[in-house]
Design a protein that fits this description.
By secondary structure, this protein is an alpha/beta fold. Helices cover 29% and strands 18% of the residues. The protein has helices at residues 9-12, 46-55, 70-85, 126-141, 144-148, 219-238, 247-257, 292-295, and strands at residues 38-39, 59-65, 91-98, 113-119, 151-155, 159-161, 173-177, 210-218, 262-264, 285-287. Helix 4 crosses helix 6 (219-238) and helix 6 (219-238) packs across helix 7 (247-257). The longest helix has 20 residues, at 219-238. The termini are far apart. It binds uridine-5'-diphosphate and manganese (II) ion. Manganese (II) ion binds next to loops.
């Protein structure tokens, strides 16, 4: 693949390069058509990325929603493994959004790491819990979270960390390749196709299919992202529509219109159900098995 040749200095500024070496993984795509790195294991130096982040004395936010049964089922393991693997050695602030603050497990936090719990209303349908995240995140980013963090990752709770997820993942705007779809032809990707939806993508549109279980960026970039998605969700709702993959459909539309500065390979959020694959060397997050009957009413 060579070095991302069209990567401009502007793109690389605020993009924790970690001394990128895309040639280390010739068998996979390591650069987007617009010049953003797609980071795979071996294409970055985690120590260099760590140094870059430490020098800037960053605070990194990690938001997660745990509403209804998702709290007991997933939150403790998510937080415990984040303590081991997420931005180790950096200043981190977790934001847990739940309707039952008293039930949040007490996880021992390392130095420089804090956890804040924010109360949210419990929506009736699981789709509504998922979609309501965009509006809630937008408000949080405009409040204390936005003031105390420089960069933020927003994640699903039904997964756990299994490997280093460090500053090499930081950039102005970060998208996650969906592990089910990264090798599919573009025309098969499950974008929203209903022309009445705000999330519609025409045939031929779309770069990659991104997973809503992980996205991140600067506070300003995420304010824009969450505003766009919340607006699109409200627009659809007012018309009695719901995009095929809910908030994820609107997220994909946003990333089509506003290209991410960095893309995470499926190693960063892998589904073990897919089995071993040669190009998946070291998964960083693993999806929990889908147990929808236990979790969703
Ligand atoms: N969520 C939650 N309670 C619910 C539904 C969803 O806390 O009843 C949150 C949780 O963080 C979850 C995310 O919303 O990981 C997205 O939902 P889910 O993971 O079920 O969607 P999927 O990954 O299957 O598309
Ligand atoms: Mn999920």
């Amino acid at each position: 693949m060579g070095v991302c040749p069209s990567a401009t200095m502007a793109l690389l500024r605020d993009n924790f390069t970690g001394a990128l070496r895309p040639w280390a993984r010739p068998e996979v795509l390591t650069c987007t058509p617009w010049g953003a790195p797609i980071i795979w294991d071996g294409t970055f130096d985690p120590d260099v990325a760590k140094q870059e982040a430490t020098q800037q004395n960053l605070t990194i936010g990690l938001t997660v929603f745990a509403v209804g049964r998702y709290l007991e089922k997933y939150l403790e393991r998510f937080l415990e493994t984040a303590e081991q693997h997420f931005m180790a050695g950096q200043s981190v602030v977790y934001y847990v959004f739940t309707e039952r603050p008293g039930a949040v497990p007490r996880v021992a936090l390392g130095p420089g790491r804090r956890l804040r719990v924010e109360r949210v209303a419990r929506e009736r349908r699981w789709q509504d819990v998922s979609m309501a995240r965009m509006r809630t995140l937008h408000a949080a980013l405009g409040g204390q979270l936005g003031r105390e963090a420089h960069f933020v990752f927003c994640m699903d709770v039904d997964q756990h960390f299994s490997g280093t997820f460090g500053p090499e993942a930081l950039a102005e705007l970060v998208a996650q390749l969906h592990s089910w779809h990264y090798h599919w032809p573009r025309w098969l990707l499950p974008f929203e196709r209903d022309a009445h939806s705000a999330a519609v993508m025409a045939r031929g549109e779309g770069d990659f299919y991104y997973h809503a279980a992980v996205f991140g960026g600067s506070v300003a970039a995420l304010r824009d992202l969450t505003a766009h998605c919340a607006r699109g969700l409200a627009w659809d709702r007012a018309r009695g529509l719901e995009a095929r993959w809910h908030d994820e459909s609107h997220l994909n539309k946003f990333f089509w219109l506003h290209k991410p500065a960095k893309v995470l390979s499926p190693e960063f959020c892998w589904s073990p159900d897919l089995g071993p694959r040669a190009e998946i060397r070291r998964p960083r997050l693993l999806w929990a098995p889908k147990e929808y009957r236990l979790l969703r009413d």
